[in-house]
Amino acid sequence: MAVKLSSAEVQSALTALPGWKLADGKLHREYRFDDFTLAFGFMAASATAIERMNHHPEWSNVYGTVIVDLTTHDAGGITKNDLDLAATLERLAQRLL
Question: 10 near 72, Cβ under 8 Å?
Fold first, then answer.
């Protein structure tokens, strides 16, 4: 089982994740793409990595915006899995932004 990180560990990790913040106890990021096709492309490209990691985000899409929240429910908070997924999503998004 993944281990919940301390607040200090999360805050330290956020320095390496531009655009990500802590909101309601979750890692939170809003991506704003130029259009729906790019936003959907980001989600589709992310799906393979998400499945491989077996760590699924809470996310939504409206036109060019994708909102992502990450937490590990089993651990009751943010874990290394969430940080790893955030970094992966960030790399994929930067190709399309």
Answer: no
Coil/strand/helix, residue 15: coil
* Residues 14-52 pLDDT 10s: 999 999 999 999 999 999 999 999 999 999 999 999 999
pTM for this prediction: 0.94
Q: What CATH number matches the domain at 7-94, 3.40.50.1000, 3.30.1360.20, 3.30.450.20, 3.40.1550.10?
A: 3.30.1360.20
- Cα separation, 4 vs 40, in Å, equals 31
The CA distance from 62 to 73, in Å, is 25
